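Hi team,

Filling in the usual template for the complex we talked about on Friday. All components are listed, including any nucleic acid strands or ligand strings, so the model treats them as one assembly.

SUBMITTER: L.P.
PURPOSE: interface mapping
COMPONENTS: two
RESIDUES: 679
SEQUENCES:
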Amino acid sequence: MEPFKNVSSIATPFQQANVDTDLIVPSRYLKTIKTTGIGEGLLYTLRFHEDGSPIKSSVFHQPLYANSAILLTGPNFGCGSSREHAVWALREAGYKVLIGTSFADIFASNCYKNGILTVTLPEDLVNELMCAAVAGLEMAVNLEKQEITTDEGRVISFDIPLARKDYLLQGLDEISLTLQSVDNIKAYQEERLQHLPWQSFD
Amino acid sequence: MPLTTNAKPQPATLYDKIWQQHVVDMHASGGSIIYIDQHFIHDVTSPQAFDMLSARGLPVFSPGSTLAVPDHNVPTTARELPIKDALSKQQIDVLKSNARANNITLFDLDDVRNGIVHVVGPEQGITQPGMTIVCGDSHTSTHGAFGALAFGIGTSEVAHTLATQTLVLHKSKNMKVTVNGTLPDHLSAKDIALAIIGKIGAGGGTGYVIEYCGETISALSMEGRMTLCNMSIEAGARAGMIAPDNKTFAYLKGRPSAPDAKKWDAALAYWGYFKSDCEAVFDKEITLDASEIVAMATWGTSPEQVIPVTGRVPNPYDFDDIVKKDAALKALEYMGLKAGQKLSDATLDRVFIGSCTNARIEDMRAAAKVLKGRKISSTIVQALAVPGSGLVKKQAEDEGLDVIFTDAGFEWREPGCSMCLGMNPDRVGPEERCASTSNRNFEGRQGPGARTHLLSPALAAAAAVAGHLIDVKELGE
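RESULT (copied from the run log):
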């Protein structure tokens, strides 16, 4: 995984509750065996009419937010389906940080595995950042310092478990790290199957 | 390694106990390495995971702990014909070749055991109390009905499970949902699930594992318990679970992958450990009175937007929360409904009885009971009955249910995920309205522009007859 780098960008304000992963990527874009080429489907119905013409009023078509790497979200963002395609599509569109009041568990985990930072903040602070984003202000996200700084100089700090922060900053590979414990896993499995013989493989 | 079932010094919940038993090691990233007993894989979320293994030059760690079941893209029409959609075919073919190359058992389309993976696992007796079970599908929570810790994972975690037979996890919080009292006659687990989601919201369970307790839950069949646990994710909880009891053990006995007679007593003794201690502390507790639950249906585009099927669509301006108000306004527009109108006033185009939520034999029976001697409304364009597995289909046919469905005007199909998410040709058209026993009424879920009303199998059958949403009780002779 690529190490997480600090981000300075305008943020896209997207204050909608319970944005589900079907909305983030409709199921017809899941018919792929790759992790790329999914960005086209990102929030498709919010960006395009049924006939494929763009919805010009969509926040995702505003030139102001064209190069945004930060998405400000409503509560329970990423709920529903476990499809990691939702995260791959966001990544493909250039989003590196998501900031909101709450993220669905599986979605947040998928973000983390792909080096995308999810920042959970109280509602008033998210609203404040939404206002800054609507006003077209840039903001900087510094993971080392655990701070978001707006163009106006407002500094908002956020929590993240230390180990998770290191993991993102170093761009570590979770599978490789786990395999450092491979002997323990093998011993565990062997003992478990010995104790629970009905679970052993025929 | 805590494999014995000695009493713990600290009172523990069912979730705590399964967690404690499966901790292998600590991970460098700060999480716990949790051993996974059973991994299910399907056609949509696993191809990229096998690529992630190849990229690292890693083999599948424990093929015997893995079962492959194509279900999402599967056509529900004649199985022997080639799959027309090239992309659907590709995903199924890749699943097959990955399974073959890695010695993973596959229930192929011509196997009577094929079906929706969350119907198949329990049906085969693979799903057992005290296990950890994962699948790249959020409705893996279904398996929690057996007192297993079961949850959906993304594709990176599918790869991690394939490569290590473990996952790196941070422990969730414990939530207890207690339902006491007698559920009114014509209601089912689906109504309970929708009532709970209506109460706590689509994000109410985020960060928690839910344990369902109480006399109403005990009274549910295993099928009903699976429906309830299945919908846990729609309340935001990654997993839902129910402590195993004699009903659980009776369901398992004699199934192909359940412990055989020689090992049965030892298994039973082990399974008995998996219940929350009386003094166990939950981080959050919710209580419902089953006698107050009524027949439920969703009106909006989130499962939390749910009301009694006989009710009126709420007025968005009655919501205090501005975000909920905006969501309601958007939902009404999308659903083509007006504030204050009776839910039963909207005309339906399609009816879908199926999905991992409601495609088990009990669901088919409940729908057939309503349909017997009746015809679906002439205004219904299509009514689909899609059993959850080849074995459910066979059993239903042995009981003559297929004839009841087809006599009423339903199409009786082959098993698969089908119209729940429309990855196969079964879709709801733009602005068409569908009464569906599935789990998600999200925008575009059943097809672009599709309008979904979630409800129970009995209510879906009644809706098919009436041509609109209706309480079974109000259906005339």
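MY TAKE: The mean pLDDT of chain B is 96. Residues 40 and 67 of chain B are 5 Å apart (CA to CA).

Thanks, L.
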